[in-house]
Amino acid sequence: MQSEENADVTQLIEENTAVQQVVSNVSNELIARRNYKPAVCNVFLNEFTKTEETNDYKFDTHIEAKKRLPDIIGNKVQIIKGVSSADELFRKKYCKKRNIGIVFSGGPAPGGHNVIAGLYDAAKKANPESSIYGFLLGPDGIIENEHVELKDDIVNAHRNLGGFGMIKTGRTKIDSKGKMSLSKETCSKLKLDALVIVGGDDSNTNAAFLAQEMYKDGVQIIGVPKTIDGDIQVRDANGSVLCAISFGFHTAALSFSNSVSNLCTDSCSDVKYWHICKVMGRVASHLALEVALQTHANITLIGEDLADYVDMRRLEKAKKEGTTDYTAFGMTLRHLSRVICDGIVRRAAVGKNYGVIVIPEGVLEFINEIQIFIIKLNTIIAKYNSTHDTDFHSDFPVLEDKLEYLRRLAKASREEGIFTIWNTRDDDLFNDIPAFFQEGLLTERDSHGNFQFSQVETDKVLMGLVKDYLKILKEKGQYKIGIPKSYFYKTLEKENLYPDILGPVLFDNFGEDFLIMKDSITSVKTLNQALNKDGIIRDGDKIPGPVEKIYKKSIPSFKTQLHFFGYDGRGNDPCGFDCVYAYNLGLTAFSLIANGSTGQMAAIKNLEKEFEKWEPIGIPIAPLMRIEERKGKLDLVLEKTLVDVNSPCFRILKELREKWLGAYPGEDDYRKPGPIRYIEKCEENRPLTFVLNELAKK
After folding, report:
1. Please, what's the b/e burial string for 506-543 (b: 16 or more CB within 10 A of its CB; e: otherwise)?
2. Which tens digit of pLDDT belongs to each residue from 86-137?
3. Does the pLDDT of residue 1 top 50, yes or no?
4. Which of 489, 622, 437 lies closest to 60 in space, CA to CA?
5. What is the side-by-side strand order in the sheet with 615-620?
6. Which of the four, 502, 524, 546, 582, has the lowest number of CB atoms within 10 Å?
7. pLDDT of residue 334
8. 123-128 long-range contacts, Cβ below 8 Å, gap at least 24?
9. Cα–Cα distance between 159 and 175 in angstroms, integer?
């Protein structure tokens, strides 16, 4: 039975409009975002647009792409130009009533709703009778003909908002004859003129095959580049940039950067934690690089940089011995942990036993020993799945079952002389790594057969090794917190002790600003021995209180806080850059459709420049395809783009690493990027990687 107090509260909510407004799910920010109108490229200010093919860009086309995509492999880059007036024939073709489908594929990325809004606005402007259908829950919506016709109320409710909530998303691939047949049936039932696929490398790969399959049906297929990882970047064979980044990247980077910046602030305030920040980026480290430039975190690992690592000391040693040490090429987990430890120890030496480390999600992909494990396990799992009615993870549900299967493979290789991809050495090395890491490496692959780095506690793996080595350094007396010279003097003089006499006994670097306790002093016992040896105290005397206090302050305690930045950033409302970029991608997609294109990716050239120089274009997808291993076999896919370690932005990061490490007395060089806003002038209007690369050209 409802109490009198509850009845009063219910009445207050139902009758007081001010209260209703406060508890409503419609905030002032939401209203303002929905009303915000993104700027449009100059060409879209015209009544019509047209496409012109250009021969200015060349591609190294793979022979397999020519074989499997014959009807679209000859596509060229198309430049979109504005047309203020047109003849009746062009007008009729451009403005005809169309049925257009659109689908999200893969993980969300900020700006997706604006792609729909741009497509919707352009289609309705050309012909108000045109229909836009949103396929629900990703490609499954196409296969199963689950759709919603998009109207003003649906589109307007989602303008400039994050997520893919308007029509949801999914990761299904249309990669079989059955799925393709059902998809063609859906397009036929809805009488679609065109289908727009918004997704990453796998999704745009799907778009290419759909364009080929539906070429004779007259259904146009247009791809739109989406991924927060930033690994869809298109250059031609001569290095000319056609698509500098996918939409969603800048927002995610700013979201992560703001959070990491807050941790930098916390770290130097509480002075006791190392914040370990793992950021999304399964294959490439673009997000980690941008976060580093935005925040100046103390240590940032870039996977592509680790892949190029060469241990010169080991090479020199081998050279003297007349051999070649091939293991000197490429970073190992152990050595990487030593690199991190070096930075931690150096900061502690100047009194900073805290800091922030940024680690890309896919950093393990660039560690040779781990990459070999991943390749072998991918092949084993894929082969098992292809030769059994069930799948590997169903048949071996727990870790011990999986390990036993691997042991049998190794045993067969050893005792029966049967060649197996998994041998005794692999098994021995694999059994040396922690169980949680074994479980991570054996985790179920995603729907594309990719290793799911987000499911592996990369940060935990690395920091476990770091903690072990720091313990060794601590026992050796090489990991100490530096004591400010002024604090040492003040503490001793307060108790009428003589710092100038005690200083040389306690510290190797007495006289410097931060004093480091001698390596030999690693315990109260060894401190007592050092004081006794130099005649400061006699046998049986207690250590002076201030001296013991100084010693205890020099002993570090390594404390970490682990953070993962991924889903929060990809679900963020888009920043001004992505609001504008995605909206113009939607306009571009319609322009390509209205001009009869298919098998093209909607893109904006010159994203790295000021907005006035942006140029909408269509990029042929087929020539971008390459052969890669997927699910244990070679397949034709859109090539991912890794961080270019020779780019100006990376070289600048490399040059400033020492400064940002902050292994010096005084304040750290942390940078505050600020929160995300949808108005361009309130934030970085382009990724800093763009800005630095452009400045290097001048």
Report:
1. bbeebeeebbbbbeebbeeeebbebbeeeebbeeeeeb
2. 999 999 999 999 999 999 999 999 999 999 999 999 999 999 999 999 999 9
3. no
4. 622
5. 48-54, 77-83, 615-620, 600-605, 220-225, 194-199, 99-104, 131-135, 147-149
6. 524
7. 86
8. 123/98, 123/590, 126/94, 126/95, 126/98, 126/590, 126/594, 127/95, 127/96, 127/97, 127/98
9. 32
- Separation CA 38–CA 684 (nearest Å): 16
Q: What's CA 548's distance to the chain center, in Å? A: 47
CA separation (Å) from 400 to 388, 440, 442?
A: 20, 13, 11
pLDDT digits over 619-677, tens only? 999 999 998 866 656 789 998 999 999 999 999 999 999 999 999 999 999 999 988 87
- Per-residue model confidence as pLDDT tens digits over 53-85: 999 999 999 999 999 999 999 999 999 999 988
CA dihedral 252, 255, 260, 263 (to 10 degrees): -150
Handedness of CA 285, 288, 293, 298 (dihedral sign): negative
Contacts made by residues 487-494, CB under 8 angstroms, sequence distance 24+: 488/515, 488/550, 491/546, 491/549, 491/550, 492/546, 492/547, 492/550, 494/546
Give whole-number Cα distances, 64 to 70, 174, 320, in Å.
Answer: 10, 19, 47
Q: Tokens standing for 132?
A: 């836009």
Domains identified in the chain and CATH numbers:
1-35 (no CATH), 38-83+90-247+574-624 (3.40.50.450), 249-472+560-569+645-695 (3.40.50.460), 480-554 (no CATH)
Query: What whole-number percentage of the chain has pLDDT above 90?
Result: 75
Active-site residue (options: 201, 229, 459, 578): 229
How do residues 663-673 score in pLDDT, each as one tens digit? 999 999 999 99
Token pair recorded at residue 107: 């993980």
Annotation says 229 is catalytic: yes
Q: For residue 153, count other CB atoms closer than 10 A to its CB.
A: 7
pLDDT tens readout for residues 191-224: 999 999 999 999 999 999 999 999 999 999 999 9
